[in-house]
Amino acid sequence: MKATNPAAPFTLGQLAELLGARCVGEAALSIDGVNGLDEAGPGELTFFSNLHYRDRLATTKASAVILKEEALGCFVPGEGRGALVVDDPYLAFARASALFHPAPVFAPGIDPRAIVEPGAEVDEAATVMACAYVGAGARVGPGAVIFPFTFVGEGARVGPGAILYPGVVVRERCAIGAGSILQPGVAIGGDGFGFAFDKSVPCHFKIPQAGVVEIGRDVEIGANSAIDRATLGVTRIGDGTKIDNLVQVGHNVAVGPLSILCGQVGIAGSSTLGKGVVCGGQVGLGNHLKVCDGARIGPKAGVMADVTEPGDYLGAPIVSSREFMRQQAAQRRLPDALKAIQRLERRVAELEKRLEASLEKDKGGD
User: Fold this and answer.
1) What is the dihedral angle through the alpha carbons of 55, 61, 64, 70, rounded to the nearest 10 degrees?
2) Residue 6 burial class via C-beta count within 10 angstroms: exposed 0-12, middle 13-18, buried 19 and up
3) Which of 59, 103, 231, 263 is the most buried (most CB within 10 A)?
4) 17 — phi, psi (to 5°)?
């Protein structure tokens, strides 16, 4: 059900026009692919954004490089070589790579080996592959792609152009926004972790998880991540947010638009993240917390209280990155400081002994 969409080679001049770049060197130079700075060879385009690696730029075999104006002196265009000058080389390279690796185009239709329950609405421009399941009352929008072994539950909604890769589960009544991408094994709408302890049995009594999950537009969720349904109400992921692999988002959490959650982040129930929040790998957030717009929390940090000011944070519990660095610098001095304290303690003990001896001597003289 997949149709290929191969990309033809581009000239350097064509790429400059498509990327909004200034072409330096041979505009007619043919570029047939992209690669890393060290791996690129003749006919390939690479990028350079960090002056610390200027030696690698000087030795690259790439035919063309995307770079900033100030880096142009490190790369000499000539016969068979050229450059594209931009403000943001990384972004321009991403767009160039998309030109050479266009998204696959899937033939619309429902595979006869798929299961689509009566009452489900699948747009005629959507793709439902073999062994996929679409429950009663579910709606699948135009251009959406449902891969094999994916489960779309009763009353769920999959927006236009969304892609659900193999093994994705979208449970009943949950919604996936237009253009969102769910990587293999993502679980949307599993029960939130809610239990009340009954001492009379004793047992952990399961609290019904009656809410839903709403995933916004242009969200990407990495493999084996889980977004729990709300106990009551909605767990919400804002438009444009990107979530890495193995991330856990608890019930009734709200993640603002354009946020980034890196691998193994865990967010406990009913916490709220603002717009553009960044959480590095293995960040943990407690329940019922609020993180303001623009906060950036570094890897392995622990958030135990509200974050009310935008900025960079590190540590567990978190402090500002500047304070964290001061603490780390002080911690490195602790062994020497401890030795100094021990020397002072010994010196004080010696002085105390001398003082006691002197007092005893004075008493004897009396």
Assistant:
1) 10
2) exposed
3) 231
4) -65, -45
